[in-house]
Amino acid sequence: MLRSCAARLRTLWALCRPPVGRRLPGSVPRPELRSFSSEEVILKDCSVPNPSWNKDLRLLFDQFMKKCEDGSWKRLPSYKRTPTERIQDFKTRFLDPKLMKEEQMSQAQLFTRSFDDGLGFEYVMFYNDIEKRMVCLFQGGPYLEGPPGFIHGGAIATMIDSTVGMCAMMAGGIVMTANLNINYKRPIPLCSVVMINSQLDKVEGRKFFVSCNVQSVDEKTLYSEATSLFIKLNPAKSLT
Length: 240
What we know:
- Residues 149-221 form the Thioesterase domain.
- The protein has 240 residues and is an alpha+beta fold.
- The chain has a domain at 55-78 and 119-232: Thiol Ester Dehydrase, Chain A.
- It has helices spanning 2-15, 39-43, 55-68, 84-94, 102-107, 153-172, and strands at residues 74-76, 121-128, 133-140, 175-184, 193-204, 207-216, 222-232.
- A seven-stranded antiparallel beta sheet has the order 1-2-3-5-6-7-4.
- The longest helix has 20 residues, at 153-172.
- The protein is globular.
- The relative contact order is 0.14.
- Mean pLDDT is 83; it is low at 11-38.
């Protein structure tokens, strides 16, 4: 498995550009970054297959798209930045507008969508409203390395938080993480695909309790388990 992962890493490195702010000796400097407010960046759905997806991720994607045909599941689109109307709604209801500078917001980009294809977080989420379940299909790229050959624990936590958070958000609206407990069972190899299965367990007022587990594609290996608490934001109270 490590040999095949290393082969993928070499292929990706040959194809990819150096990360922002760094360039290889003798290389031509990269052009200045565009504003992420451009229409092209905003409208690109990052949760559909691209050439970096391996066969396991593509196969699972096709299986869940089949489940979407009867309406029981739906795929959630994902963009590099939050849609303008959601930013405006959040700013109007929860934050002091003076703290959200327009210039900074125009450059804002979702952390999990800030890498070139195949280098970081490749994922797609599917939601079942009746069962209150969210499933995330995740492939971790070479820029997420922690221990040699394995995904960094913080990157795994990021995807767990994103998945359980989206599960709570679909059930209750705008929420924020209050508590996240993760038990790491086994390390996840770079470039491999895992399934993050989350479930809304209960709701108490503005509190949403969500649990999840991270498993291999064949469901024979348990990588992590987590429990979480999310709080639905109160429009009458500012976050600042």
